[in-house]
Amino acid sequence: MAFTIPSLQDLSPPRRVKPSFRVSSFLPALIPILACLYVGVVILVPALAVVVQAFAKGFGVFLDNFKSPELLSALRLTLIATAIAVPFNAIFGLAAATAIARHRFPGKALLLSIIDLPFSISPVVVGLMLVLLYSPTHGVFAGVLQSTGWKIIFSLPGIVMATILVTFPFMAREVIPLLEEEGWDQEEAARTLGASDWQVFWKVTLPSVRWAALYGLILTTARALGEFGAVSVVSGNIRGETQTLPLFVEDAYKQYHTEMAFGASLVLATVAIVSLLLKLAVEQLMERDRSAVKGGEE
Q1: For a disulfide at 6, which of 10, 17, 97, 163, Cβ 3.0-4.6 Å?
Q2: How far is 149 from 137, CA to CA, in rounded Å?
Q3: Contact 166, 86 (CB under 8 A)
Q4: Are 166 and 119 in contact (CB under 8 A)?
Q5: Is the dihedral of CA 137, 132, 150, 244 positive or negative?
């Protein structure tokens, strides 16, 4: 059996294979770039435009805008509605979260669905619902309102009710997951030692969810200060009387008071930035507490 050995001239060097272009190798870098571009176009550029327009004619003109009685009235009404709505939602949220996470009762799933309802319904629809209920002329409770002389629509009570309705899920939805994660071993131990339900709540339950409750308060406050849709329906947008700060921004812009509109918008944007910073601080504190608990268990 014979073998033929090729000569050296017949041997050609191996061809170099060009590396193929793979999109998957660029995805780890492409996705963060696209995310940053999206955030910049949607959030950062409009926010920067608000700042530029607010100070377009100088810092003195910006400060003079806050001498407007209509702007001060809108700011005062917004703060009053927020100061009333936030404590109501804090109490309801803590009570609802404790009941849902610690008890079994008929209608528990329905209660959760009702709490989530403002997330799925437009705020304008919420305002329309209040008008259909409390309108003094054709509302469901029109007879009661006329006999008692109460005024809800186009007044402060209607604004407060609308603000409460659109903001009440935030507290409950922040506290419920943490309560379910924590369990109730410590609460049962406190009851075994003779603590009452009220003592258990104040000394065991509330301290364990303090950061989640604070987080819910921040979100509720920010949402209440910036509410527009529901309040615009129930308030009537009466300048100097039932006009909140977000409604004032729209009205001032329509009246070509551009600097005043952007000045009020800057106030709302500042509230949003402060809320974001507080949110980040609370998240850091929550993470520190979780790390401390895990370190103690190990």
Answers
A1: 10
A2: 12
A3: no
A4: no
A5: negative
Question: Which tens digit of pLDDT belongs to each residue from 209-230?
Answer: 888 888 889 889 989 998 998 9
- Assess contact for 273 and 280: CB atoms under 8 A: no
| pLDDT single digits (tens) 247-279 | 999 999 888 888 888 888 888 888 888 888 888
CA pair distance 224, 218, nearest whole angstrom: 10
pLDDT exceeds cutoff 60 at 32 = yes
Q: What is the 3-state secondary structure (H, E, C) of the chain?
A: CCCCCCCHHHCCCCCCCCCCCCHHHCHHHHHHHHHHHHHHHHHHHHHHHHHHHHCCCCHHHHHHHHHCHHHHHHHHHHHHHHHHHHHHHHHHHHHHHHHHHHCCCCCHHHHHHHHHHHHHCCHHHHHHHHHHHHCCCCCCCHHHHHHHCCCCCCCHHHHHHHHHHHHCHHHHHHHHHHHHHHCCHHHHHHHHCCCCHHHHHHHHHHHHCHHHHHHHHHHHHHHHHCCCHHHHHHHCCCCCCCCCHHHHHHHHHHCCCHHHHHHHHHHHHHHHHHHHHHHHHHHHHHHHHHHHHHHHHC
Angle at 168 between CA 166 and CA 171, to 5 degrees: 135
CB 177 within 8 A of CB 183: no
Q: What angle do CA 151, 167, 221 make, to 5 degrees?
A: 100
Question: CA 103 to CA 96: how far, in whole Å?
Answer: 10
How many other C-beta atoms can be found within 10 angstroms of the C-beta atom of residue 189?
A: 12
